[in-house]
Amino acid sequence: MVNVGIIGLGYWGPNLLRNLYTNSRCGRIVMCDSDPARAERMRSRYPDLYCTPDCGEVFGDDGLDAVVVATGVSSHYPLARRALEAGKHVFVEKPFAASVVEAEELVELGRRLKLVTMVGHTFMFSPPVIKTKEIIDSGELGEIYFITASRVNLGLHQKDVSVIWDLAPHDFSMLFYWLGEEPSSVSAFGHAYVLEGIPDVAFINLAFPSGSTGNVQVAWLAPSKLRRTVIVGSSKMLVYDDTEPIEKVKIYDKGVEVIEPETFGEYQLTYRTGDILSPKLSTDEPLAAEMEEFLASIEEGRKPRSSGEEGLSVVRALEMAERSLRNTTF
Amino acid sequence: MVNVGIIGLGYWGPNLLRNLYTNSRCGRIVMCDSDPARAERMRSRYPDLYCTPDCGEVFGDDGLDAVVVATGVSSHYPLARRALEAGKHVFVEKPFAASVVEAEELVELGRRLKLVTMVGHTFMFSPPVIKTKEIIDSGELGEIYFITASRVNLGLHQKDVSVIWDLAPHDFSMLFYWLGEEPSSVSAFGHAYVLEGIPDVAFINLAFPSGSTGNVQVAWLAPSKLRRTVIVGSSKMLVYDDTEPIEKVKIYDKGVEVIEPETFGEYQLTYRTGDILSPKLSTDEPLAAEMEEFLASIEEGRKPRSSGEEGLSVVRALEMAERSLRNTTF
Amino acid sequence: MVNVGIIGLGYWGPNLLRNLYTNSRCGRIVMCDSDPARAERMRSRYPDLYCTPDCGEVFGDDGLDAVVVATGVSSHYPLARRALEAGKHVFVEKPFAASVVEAEELVELGRRLKLVTMVGHTFMFSPPVIKTKEIIDSGELGEIYFITASRVNLGLHQKDVSVIWDLAPHDFSMLFYWLGEEPSSVSAFGHAYVLEGIPDVAFINLAFPSGSTGNVQVAWLAPSKLRRTVIVGSSKMLVYDDTEPIEKVKIYDKGVEVIEPETFGEYQLTYRTGDILSPKLSTDEPLAAEMEEFLASIEEGRKPRSSGEEGLSVVRALEMAERSLRNTTF
Amino acid sequence: MVNVGIIGLGYWGPNLLRNLYTNSRCGRIVMCDSDPARAERMRSRYPDLYCTPDCGEVFGDDGLDAVVVATGVSSHYPLARRALEAGKHVFVEKPFAASVVEAEELVELGRRLKLVTMVGHTFMFSPPVIKTKEIIDSGELGEIYFITASRVNLGLHQKDVSVIWDLAPHDFSMLFYWLGEEPSSVSAFGHAYVLEGIPDVAFINLAFPSGSTGNVQVAWLAPSKLRRTVIVGSSKMLVYDDTEPIEKVKIYDKGVEVIEPETFGEYQLTYRTGDILSPKLSTDEPLAAEMEEFLASIEEGRKPRSSGEEGLSVVRALEMAERSLRNTTF
Fold first, then answer.
1. Strands, DSSP E only, in D66-200?
2. Identity of the residue in C213, C222, C253 whose CB atom sits nearest the CB atom of D191
3. Does some domain include residue C51?
4. In this complex, which of D245, D265, D269 lies closest to B245 when CB atoms are compared?
5. Is A152 in Cβ contact with B225 (below 8 Å)?
6. Which chain D residue shows the shortest CA-CA distance from B242?
């Protein structure tokens, strides 16, 4: 059993809490938020759990084995560092930290103290993403040529970070997980339409050591979500559309050679060359799997999926993209 | 009535020919191809039309008012130039020419000789593209923030030009038509996976004087076509998916503010904020409309839609993209 | 505040309980289930609620104003009757009762004792169904010609009742709600494929006094859900597909006259005649709205949507369909 | 080489003619239509073909081996009979004849005179229908439990026959072809909304000797086409949606047992239990394949797919459905 302190009960923290609460590996839970309203809401939902406004109490509680940090990105580093220095395993929401320097220090600290560091890249625990990883690793797609990802979101969620820091962590964590590598170069192009100085649209190019390339589109401004990832390999293509209810993942087989169509109508009507398979996906809850992985990696003394190293890779790519964006945006 | 010579009876020429043949503005037609097999095939299909292997015969035929050039891109410039110099209006397949220098010279020549120059950007005559233009011009979408376009094609069609010269003319012509401007800067990133030196994947960024940005993905390597264009404006979003049979164009209205979802499930399920409208499209044949526009612009002595100027804009952007691609591709 | 006893904590009861628990109109809740395992599960989820294995305790508790019955259909009548006779408002899961005689008696009893009777036809509280009702009532579809409904479900859920009693209550309650009438005649045709004597597929025809007709397909045997309702009116058509994530409801406008297509290809490609609109739907939770309606109708002393009368109409149609099925099934 | 006379150059005839004209098995063609405008149109399209207004000339032409009848249903029988009596093989558009008596006589006549009789059930030559037949025959779906078919068409096409005679031939021919049997009982229910006495909506139940059941919905009144066929077998389900551009046929695998969902949300989100496969379809033109089959069966002296027998089965079912409809329609 792992005893856990959770800091930050705002938007995402309660979701993590709910999944810790029902996980049988989880023992005692201490909740922490300096905002009285949030604390009160959670106290009434979990009357059996203790809640403190002071995170120092969490770090000083010798009975706690681990800390979950679900606050804003700027406090990830100081809180995670204090947790590690207090000898506690740490789970930090994505993005891992506000800079590569911070993220590197946390990884290094965890490694030195032999403590688990894990980052909340939830999509790495989502059934379509896991299935896609299995398919890629099986070699079914062949050599991976390129991956494109669209993440066009509703409304405007952030006022202090660019759309890259807000949305690209999702796609970066998926791409790096699938390819098993981080990019050798990242460049970005975008624009700030609504708030000056806060880019709300960005197109990001990635080159990977293996030769694969990527193009990630992130934007906030749409009235309807678009979330489509296309992976083109030398043998097959895989499309993962997270807005599809029934067929989130489709694998397109290559068929025989295409014959040149003779009319514009035929040209328009020749859509594909082989079978299309949509594999059955598990219905596991990603957040439950994520919390399970955190607790299991502590109990088993092993590195978790979505470890601090993966979190660092994502932060490194975010920093490269952001720097490029600042240079090329007009 | 316009008398027309058509040069090039390979892949696309017969489609143009068929639409000329049934157009009531079209008078006498002379066919021309140096390949005996192609010539023979068209002769048997149109026993009433004269066919010559020698294009000089077309240029020298004083009864012909116009010439349609449907050959490979490398011969566009010399053939179109001879046609114009022979005093004939000219229609050239896309892309207009193999370089900006060539395209500029053709436009200049047409202007000086008061002859129509037109380029076969067929999508500019396709009902969903025209409807999208109307919607943008009506102001319904508001200020256009950004446009993304995916054109992922089956198989490998070309051995001598990059995927940019093969596929981007379609998207460039649509984007410039919709926005009514050509880009101030174009950059591209891509890779050659199958044939060394022939990029088969490219991601192209475009910045327009008005402030709009664009991201165009073109690739050859897929087992199924993807053709989706997303236009995000300050008021509404439009999605044009050419592989959709019934709802090719959809307009997404902006609704009220989004409330932050409280669970991962809710987060996943909140897809959109307003109504979605899919307007009825005309069922006109794009190629018929294109040939009609060519013949009508000659008879009415006016500039056609998709004129030489538009063709030049596309070639200019292709050249910028190709140059950028050569610099950044690894 | 309404104090509520809830009997039956099996499959559906806990969902109702959860929504009662968080409804501010709901006061004290008493839980009841004779199965110790179920009782224990709910006790640990709601440690503050009292749970009894004896439903007599619920009926005898003078502090309780209302009873929710979420047991199997065979016990609906005896439990609801005892609740009413004990002076308590009653909410009964669908179908209301096992026969018309039973349902009539419950309606009559509620009317005489001036107590609310309500039936859990949840779809009548689901946003797409409510939006469809609004659209029909607005006259936008014109005169309603016919409605078809497909409800093809996974696996085999029931061993004691036919697919009609299991699935048709959903569609019947929607159709009668939309049309504001119950059918004058109902006939059914079906077959028992898996368990002898338990029909698992049925096709039901309905004729309504207004002249509208209906065709409802219900089946258990499919590996994927199908749920599509088509409403064809004299002016427009509405399609409601509950498996669609983003566009559950679509309204198809009638356009101009169709021109006879000239080729088989054209024939296949002419899909529609007018605009298609998918209205934005509320994201309200149907079960929360249902429990709110039950409690509000008690507090406001009024008839609820989905009252005993509606429940009776559904049971009447079920009985007619079942009788017809028994006669025609081979 | 087969020499063919074609009678009827109205709506469908020109499509057959075009495919005869390009078929290498087809020799001389004689066209026939008593309407001068139609005759003139075809004469100008095929200046090399002879056209007569007098069908007697076709029957009396000893050089003709076969006759294609593409007129209205009421003249199918007299024309086909004269053709057979003149010793010519005959292809008749669907439905084969206006009554079972007529159809039986034609089949009998063809059999006695050893002449091919074939009926234009074009869908039996369409790639998705053929692929479905292959899948059923392979046993992949298991025992076929039931088939539902929706054919909701635009506008109002006919003024003299009910929607059953107009649309049901398509679905009947497909169902009987797939199952390899004709129904033992057929009943129908419907209504005439627009023109009194001409039913424009009908729901048809079919029972087959093997135990399979069917439900066919046909209607004219919709602003958008719906064409979906669902085949549920003991092992898998197949959905064939003819309005889908890319995935017309999908096979749904059965997976493991479904776990009862615990919340309404989960209930809504559990869509399917196994993989979904959409097989690649051929892009053959159905009408070309149909004409090829007619000519080949003549040359090879064998029974064609979609022979007179199949046409008779369809007419028999149409007559049963129509009779039932007249009895039950209100």
1. 66-69, 89-93, 117-120, 144-154, 185-191
2. C213
3. yes
4. D245
5. no
6. D245
Closest by CA to A137, choosing from A17, A252, A231, is: A231
Provide the number of CB pairs (under 8 Å) joining chain A to chain D: 44
Position B327, amino acid: N
Are the C-beta atoms of residues B313 and B182 closer than 8 Å to each other? yes
Q: How many domains does chain C have?
A: 2
Query: Does D310 map to a domain?
Result: no
Q: Which member of C271, C273, C278 has the closest CB to residue B276? A: C278
Mean pLDDT, residues C158-187:
93
- Of C34, C166, C7, nearest to C90 (Cα)? C7
Distance from the A245 Cα atom to the nearest Cα atom in chain C, whole angstroms = 6
Please count the residue pairs, one from chain B and one from chain C, whose beta carbons lie less than 8 angstroms apart. 45
A21 and A153 both lie in a single domain: no
pLDDT at C158: 64
Chain B contacts of C135, Cβ < 8 Å?
none
Query: Nearest CB to D265: which of B224, B245, B265?
Result: B265
- List chain B residues with CB under 8 Å of A191: 145-146, 211, 213
Please indicate, yes or no, whether residues A101 and A132 belong to a single structural domain of this protein: no
pLDDT score for C11: 84
pLDDT of A268 above 60:
no
Q: Mean pLDDT throughout C127-133?
A: 97
- Domain presence at residue C146: yes
Residue found under tokens 């799997």 = A289
D76 lies in the same domain as D47 = yes
Note whether residue D252 is domain-resident: yes
- CA-to-CA separations, D269 to A125, A244, C176, C224, C304, in angstroms, rounded: 18, 11, 26, 11, 28
ipTM here: 0.91
Which of chain C's residues have a Cβ under 8 Å away from the Cβ of D243? 271
CB count, 10 Å around CB of A327?
A: 10
Whether B210 and B262 map to the same domain: the answer is: yes
Point out the domain boundary residue: B88, B115, B142. B115
Distance between D50 CA and the closest CA of chain B, angstroms: 17
Across the interface, of B269, B272, B280, the residue whose CB is closest to C275 is: B280
Residue with tokens 């962590």: A169
Mean pLDDT taken over chain C: 91
Instruction: Mark whether B180 and B231 lie in a shared domain.
Output: yes
Neighboring chain A residues of B268 at a CB cutoff of 8 Å: 242
Q: Tell me how far apart the alpha carbons of residues A117 and A126 are, in angstroms, rounded to a whole number.
A: 20
Q: Is residue B137 within 8 Å of A253, Cβ to Cβ?
A: no
Inter-chain contact A223–B254, Cβ cutoff 8 Å?
Answer: yes
Q: Give pLDDT < 70 ranges for chain D.
A: 155-159, 255-272, 329-330
| Alpha-carbon gap, residue D314 to D310, rounded angstroms | 6
Tokens read off for D156: 């109002």
Pick the residue of B203, B218, B327 with the most A CBs within 10 A to test the interface with A by mutation: B203
Sign of CA dihedral B106, B111, B112, B116: positive
Residues D251, D217 within the same domain? yes
Instruction: Let me know whether C93 and C150 are in one domain.
Output: no
Average pLDDT over residues C10-29: 94
Residue C158: domain span? 124-286+315-328
Give D27 to chain B, closest Cα distance, Å.
16
What is the nearest CA distance from C43 to chain A, expressed in angstroms?
A: 15
What residues does A5 pair with on adjacent strands? A30, A67
Q: What CATH number did the domain enclosing D89 receive?
A: 3.40.50.720
CATH number for the domain harbouring residue B198? 3.30.360.10
Residues in A touching B239 (Cβ below 8 Å): 226
Distance between CA atoms of B203 and B151, rounded to whole angstroms? 10
Our CA-based measurement puts residue C283 at a distance from the nearest CA of chain B, in whole angstroms, of 8
CB of D147 closer than 8 Å to CB of D223: no
Q: Does A108 lie in the same domain as A130? A: no
